[in-house]
Amino acid sequence: MKSKTAPGFGFGLGFMGACFSSEQDKSINKFPGNDCRTSLSGRSDLRRMQSSGSTPLASKNVRDLRQSPGYCNVDIFTYEEMRLATKQFRPDLILGEGGFGIVYKGVIDSSVRTGYKSIQVAIKELNPEGFQGDREWLAEVNYLGQLSHPNLVKLIGYCCEDEHRLLVYEYLANGSLEKHLFRRVGCVLTWSRRMKIALDAAKGLAFLHGAERSIIYRDFKTSNILLDADFNAKLSDFGLAKDGPMGDQTHVSTRVMGTYGYAAPEYVMTGHLTARSDVYGFGVVLLEMLIGRRAMDKSRPSREHNLVEWARPLLNNNKKLLRILDPRIEGQYSVKTAMKVANLAYQCLSQNPKGRPLMSQVVEILENFQEKEQKSQHAIVHNGGESLTLYEVPKDSANNPQEKRNIVKSEVERKELHQRPTDSRTKTELPSETDQRGPPDSKSGEESG
């Protein structure tokens, strides 16, 4: 749950008294007071998760929300219940902290609320002095209260009492992808596990983009991808999420928010936001998983500070790609598959948004990779702690001695490259990424956030 992003203050949302699989276009303005009052305008074009009667009117504040049917399976907690769940916010239960506040591990059971089935939770307490405000808090309640998908973190409930703002999520035992991918020692992210995480995250984004009114996540990065006990990945932190374009609109114009290294170049330059902006962020994370480096790393030589600028030109070169792949997963993949995944990252990172695939296509591609990997003929032969990957010979080269020699040569080169001295990538871990803020788009009539 750890994150140090300074969230933005722009999105469209509204509270509805029922569960939905997409969300509506609403604008929010904060009013003084302790009851989270908001001003709502716009129309609803939601697609329901469950069939029921007519769409209820939008709730104007949390008090109205409590009196309405509410979100399905989202509970409203008192601050005292939050204190009990975290043992009075005990310091040793802190899971992480950042500009938003602090995240605690907690338990909600019958001692917290009579008759409540015991469940482990992660409780995020908003810091009133921090980067996030009521808008981001309300965005998370709104989006996660209405959305349900295996690859989105589940919102258990929330607390909005006096000045207190807390969110209660399902507890995900393995924390963030960032924590595991960039840990100094003992990395447990195998090649197959990384590919599964990439597929899970892609499914989460594809779900958001495929809603009746698309939702742009806007802050896709390793620290926002959480892992459960079985390393199933789920997207978290919807504070920057925003309604996508609708009708004849090609984009949404907004203030530039997010994290350096992950934001799409056209979004940074113009403030024009589309679903393809998320595809770029996905490409950055896929690249991080392939190479084992952070998107921004100033501890490296200057030309390698920005991972995409340094690595993208190398992704379509077999020899250079093998030289830069994460040595911690050496021998766990076929060169053929690694090349295909690298090519996918290359496409996602296209400077031209139209050159990037849709997330639904990314899901299809990754599923195809996974299926072929499971059915492939190569195997790992372990001998005294050493591993050798037996690569499948292409059908059209089965009877070609020269092709066979090239495959063997390629494998020998790969081994030699990884035997060379490595840099200190695992010795120095940087703080979380610097957040970026940009000026509002100057075009009249465009949204400010």
TrEMBL record:
Residues 40-60, 391-449 are annotated as: Disordered. One of its GO terms (biological process) is defense response. Residues 402-449 have a biased composition (Basic and acidic residues). Its main location: membrane. It is found in: Cell membrane. Keywords: ATP-binding, Cell membrane, Kinase, Membrane, Nucleotide-binding, Plant defense, Serine/threonine-protein kinase, Transferase. Residues 89-381 form the Protein kinase domain. It holds the Pfam family PK_Tyr_Ser-Thr. Its EC number is 2.7.11.1. The keyword tRNA-binding does not apply. Belongs to the protein kinase superfamily. This is non-specific serine/threonine protein kinase. It comes from Punica granatum. The gene is LOC116215857.
